[in-house]
Write a sequence for this structure.
């Protein structure tokens, strides 16, 4: 297999799931490395510098958040976490610690592959020059000129609404936690003020969504945060 294919590291203690990932990701042409514990995972990131890490949150030795914090001390490699349904709080903590996205078990293969493609695309984009105009569907945001247009018509946003939108754009297609949004838009002291977010997200949806009650791209991730979904085009 060509060495130019992205190298993915799977950190998962369940051998069956590891085997499943090995087959499904291998079929897509990804190169794979594996680890069954957190310590081994951290060592493998250091040794192989993978393009992306798929990390199970329920590992026998280390807490998933701890694994992420240690990797983030020196590496910016994207991390997609796998969590069980009863790990809601761990999942949010892991995202706040620097994970890029998550999947809740059981997850579908298509969903996993889509998340991996998005995370890898973000890396290649970060290495190139940043795009100054963001477009998805009818929405167009000129980040340099700070102009927001919907179907060609300029939309006025308040400074907070604009900051909220551009924070989601920076992480387009990826989940952004309540805590991350609050810190970014309102500052470090606002971390627990979830109601600010609800109010401003509703305002933003009213201005940008055709049907604010059934958002098409400003999506809620229940219990976690929000995701700006890119249209498929
Ligand atoms: Ca596990």
């Amino acid at each position: 297999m060509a060495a130019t294919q992205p190298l993915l590291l799977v950190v998962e203690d369940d051998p069956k799931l590891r085997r499943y990932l090995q087959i499904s990701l291998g079929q897509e042409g990804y190169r794979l490395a594996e680890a069954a514990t957190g310590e081994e995972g951290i060592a493998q990131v250091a040794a192989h510098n993978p393009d992306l890490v798929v990390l199970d949150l329920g590992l026998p030795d280390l807490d998933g958040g701890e694994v992420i914090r240690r990797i983030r001390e020196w590496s910016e490699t994207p991390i997609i976490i796998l969590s069980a349904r009863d790990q809601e709080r761990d999942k949010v903590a892991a995202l706040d610690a620097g994970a890029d996205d998550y999947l809740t078990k059981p997850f579908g293969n298509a969903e996993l592959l889509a998340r991996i493609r998005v995370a890898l695309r973000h890396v290649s984009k970060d290495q190139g020059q940043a795009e100054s105009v963001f477009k998805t569907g009818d929405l167009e945001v000129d980040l340099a000129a700070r102009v927001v247009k919907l179907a060609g018509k300029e939309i006025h946003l308040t400074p907070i609404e604009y900051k909220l939108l551009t924070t989601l754009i920076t992480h387009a297609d990826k989940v952004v936690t309540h805590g991350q949004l609050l810190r970014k838009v309102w500052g470090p002291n606002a971390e627990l003020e979830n109601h600010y977010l609800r109010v401003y997200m509703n305002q933003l949806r009213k201005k940008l969504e055709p049907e604010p009650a059934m958002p098409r791209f400003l999506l809620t991730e229940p219990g976690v945060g929000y995701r700006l979904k890119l249209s498929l085009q």
